């Protein structure tokens, strides 16, 4: 894969696509981003998120949310938010249990390092 330059990193690519008029894209505002962040990390089931989204307060709010269902919210997260390196899977046979194949899930450590080192969130905390 080789070494990535700043313009080739995932974060550099995302920054180049940013619209200065929409800094929280795909969310319409920082407030909406905060609601999405909370909903998606709260551990609530999608049905409970949908219950929240149907509350009249949510829709009568001065800045209503731009999505109406948990499914849409998660679809946008999957489509637009940065993703780390993908997981790989391999079936292995252990000497101690040759008739019980095991599934090994792993990530490429070089891809993980490139992803983390190119993430601007960590730039102030890195020393070389």
From TrEMBL:
Enumerate the Pfam families for this protein: Plavaka
Name the domain of life this protein comes from: Eukaryota
User: What name goes with this protein?
Assistant: Transposase
Q: Which organism is it from?
A: Hydnum rufescens UP504
